[in-house]
Design a protein that fits this description.
heterodimer; A: mainly alpha; 8 helices; globular; B: mainly alpha; two-stranded antiparallel ribbon; 3% strand
Chain lengths: 213, 286
């Protein structure tokens, strides 16, 4: 038995297409789908998707959650309490992630002909401010950041199935999956479980659409 | 604050840390099960009851699919993003000239797909069946890893056991959604690839890397599926599992001593998704 291909090689579409010939494959795909001539690939899309009010409400809530997460990480990094270089590095990385998540929500909203809510979610501000004011140790900060991640991850998971445009399910879980990874990292740092809910993440900390925006 | 272990030859987390983590996982899991399991069970029961209920939302419209590689940027509900819809699964059916090489066997894709299936696209039940088979393949991979005698870091074994048990739970949940289409069998193709790679792995690091790839493959596949599922409830089950696969990947990546920025990218991607048609469930598409 010859060695099989690596999982990465099998699952990397770029590599697969590169090896197999993109043009030939595309031609076959077009024919198979009955989706028109090869010129379709160069046709400028004429359909503009306008997000429904429901989708906008959910996405704007997401953007406000990200704005809050950015502000929480800003305060954590400015607190002077993060002394472990690994923790500092992780906090800076996750701060950058949340900035990019906020950009993603903004882009989704702009594409849907709406605008983001760049103001930190007011519900979360009320919820976390007492803790932000009493941070005393590095562990306090990490616990808070872990909880912020938990809120974000739960929120995006709970959004799945609520959208009119199902593609937004992917949008929110592309973000939610990363927040879950943040939780795992903070769990390892704190010496707690990296999968705190076990086999299935629950949504008890979710911010409901339109809350705090 | 527990000090992070020094980056060693192969593991960044100390054995003590991993053992603590696994113990904590088990304890917290038991504690959480009183509520979380009830919640999950209720969710799955609800999903199983309502599976097949069509969405009533705005249909996704756009230009014809081109079969080009998916956008590398995160999905935003734009026209590019719609490439991750059900059509992606259909589009790949046209790759009849391609073949999957597994060991010495080369399987023409066209032989794995029925015309009826190609015409209608996968149903939620079929995608749940597919997911069930992937989860059981993941269980097989962890079993092979634990039995490989290549694992020198003792604390990895309980970690593998914990993650494997969670994949078993995922398989059961997907099996419930699949109903009478459930196969209770690991995906033959993916399972063979994963276990074969583990058997051929040179050392512990290589074994963990295969498991990491497996976790990322599952989360990528499920992420893509979220744009394809049509019922209201089934996506919620997928969405409850994606974060856990992501957390598994994080633990494995950190245990490899990889840079955190490599372990946790800014966005979960669909780049490692598996094509339903290239990895048929046992017995073929049902």
């Amino acid at each position: 038995v010859k060695p099989g291909p690596s999982l990465e090689a099998i699952t990397d579409r770029r590599r697969l297409l590169g090896a197999g010939g993109l043009l030939a494959t595309s031609a076959v795909l077009l024919a198979a789908c009955g989706s028109g001539s090869s010129s379709a690939s160069s046709t400028t899309p004429t359909t503009v998707y306008r997000a429904t009010a429901n989708d906008v409400e959910i996405l704007r809530t997401g953007s406000s959650v990200e704005a809050f997460a950015i502000s929480a990480y800003d305060k954590a990094l400015a607190s002077g309490l993060l002394v472990d270089p690994n923790v500092q590095s992780a906090a800076k990385l996750f701060h950058d992630h949340h900035s990019r998540h906020a950009d993603l929500f903004a882009r989704a909203l702009f594409n849907g002909k709406s605008t983001p809510d760049a103001t930190p979610n007011s519900y979360l501000v009320s919820l976390f401010t007492p803790r932000l004011l009493t941070l005393a140790t590095e562990r306090d900060v990490i616990l808070l950041l872990n909880d912020v991640e938990r809120v974000a991850s739960d929120t995006y998971q709970s959004d799945v199935g609520r959208f009119d445009n199902k593609t937004y399910n992917i949008t929110v879980m592309q973000v939610g999956g990363t927040e879950a990874a943040h939780i795992a990292n903070w769990g390892l740092t704190l010496g707690t479980s990296p999968t705190p809910d076990g086999a299935f993440q629950t949504t008890g900390s979710a911010v409901q659409p339109a809350t705090g925006i | 604050m527990k000090p992070r272990a020094e980056v060693g030859e192969s593991m960044e987390i100390s054995e003590a840390e991993l053992l603590d983590m696994v113990r904590s996982t088990a304890e917290q899991h038991r504690d959480a099960m009183a509520t979380a399991k009830d919640e999950a069970a209720a969710l799955h029961a609800w999903a199983a009851r309502t599976a097949g209920t069509p969405e009533t939302g705005t249909p996704v419209t756009g230009t014809p699919e081109t079969g080009t590689p998916e956008a590398r940027t995160p999905e935003t509900g734009t026209l590019d993003a719609r490439r991750t819809t059900r059509r992606r699964f259909l589009a790949t059916l046209g790759a009849g000239g391609l073949a999957v090489s597994i060991g010495s066997a080369v399987v023409p894709l066209a032989s794995l797909v029925t015309p009826a299936y190609a015409a209608s696209g996968p149903t939620d039940q079929q995608l749940s069946q597919f997911a069930e088979s992937l989860e059981l393949a993941a269980v097989a991979a962890y079993t092979a890893a634990s039995a490989s005698a290549k694992i020198r870091t003792a604390s990895l074994l309980p970690t593998f056991a914990s993650f494997s048990a969670q994949h078993s739970e995922h398989a059961a949940a997907y099996g419930d959604l699949a109903g009478d289409a459930a196969t209770a069998t690991a995906n033959p193709t993916f399972g063979v690839i994963a276990t074969q790679q583990i058997e051929q792995a040179a050392d512990e690091r290589a074994v963990v890397q295969v498991l990491l790839d497996t976790e990322n493959t599952l989360s990528s596949t499920y992420l893509t599926t979220l744009g394809t599922l049509t019922s209201t409830a089934t996506p919620k089950v997928f969405a409850s599992i994606i974060p856990v696969e992501s957390q598994h990947a994080t633990v494995l990546g950190i245990s490899l001593g990889l840079q955190l920025s490599s372990v946790i990218p800014p966005f979960l991607t669909v780049n490692q998704q598996l094509d339903y048609t290239k990895f048929p469930v046992a017995g073929g598409t049902r």
